[in-house]
Design a protein that fits this description.
Aminopeptidase, 6-stranded mixed β-sheet, 122 residues, alpha+beta, 6 strands
């Protein structure tokens, strides 16, 4: 993460509450998935919201930010991966128009996670 924070190819947005505590963040950057992706695609690497803030509008604010930044940069699509059993996240992304386009094995240490690749055409 520190290397990406200083890399101009990545953009990060942090959400804070009224007390200045971090309650979520989103990070976008170049698509890292294997395959032939358009140069105008961008990846939503992370969109995390602290669990006590679920339903408080933090996630939608971060997603709106990511979409706005992608459009302002002239991007034509946003790509992301999400764990197959993270049903809450799947519903969230689907509300924005993301559709599943493939599978991806994401390694968490020695553990392979079964993820789904989703795409939003802007």
């Amino acid at each position: 993460m520190p290397a990406q924070l200083s890399d101009p190819a990545f953009t990060v947005r942090v959400a804070v509450d009224a007390a200045g505590e971090i309650v979520g963040f989103a990070k976008i950057g170049p698509v890292a998935f294997p395959g032939d992706w358009p140069a105008t695609a961008v990846e939503l690497y992370q969109l995390y919201v602290r669990s006590d803030q679920h339903g408080a509008g933090v996630g939608p604010a971060l997603m709106d930010w990511a979409i706005d930044v992608a459009r302002a940069e002239g991007r034509t699509e946003i790509i992301l991966s999400v764990y197959v059993d993270n049903h809450r996240a799947h519903r969230f992304y689907q509300r924005y128009g993301f559709v599943e386009i493939g599978r991806y094995v994401f390694m968490v240490g020695e553990q392979p996670d079964d993820d789904r690749i989703m795409r939003l055409v802007l």
